[in-house]
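Customer escalation, tier 2.

The customer says the design service returned an amino acid string that "doesn't look like it belongs to this structure." They asked us to rerun it and document both sides in this ticket. The original structure tokens are below, unchanged.
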């Protein structure tokens, strides 16, 4: 009888542990999916730049002020980083 009670207690503990592990596994899978999405978005930004970056660079290049050429170069470097 004592052996059965011990085994039932052990089984209850193992079920609890399984629940914790399953919950953590689900959380970790969600994090991996999030990281995949983030990596995809970052890669797209590296390849294509920010959505408004092309328009901003075009505006800077067409303002015709003649000065501040270094500022445009600085903006391009920041965008590339």
């Amino acid at each position: 009888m004592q052996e059965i009670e011990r085994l039932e207690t052990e089984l209850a503990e193992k079920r609890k542990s399984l629940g914790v592990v399953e919950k953590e596994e689900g959380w970790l899978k969600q994090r991996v999916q999030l990281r995949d999405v983030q990596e995809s978005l970052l890669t797209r930004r590296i390849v294509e730049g920010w959505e408004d970056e092309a328009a901003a660079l075009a505006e800077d290049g067409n303002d015709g002020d003649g000065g501040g050429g270094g500022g445009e170069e600085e903006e391009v470097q920041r965008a590339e980083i």
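Tier 2 assessment: The sequence is consistent with the input. The chain has one domain: 2-58+70-80. Residues 2-58+70-80 form one domain. Sent an explanation to the customer and offered a walkthrough call.
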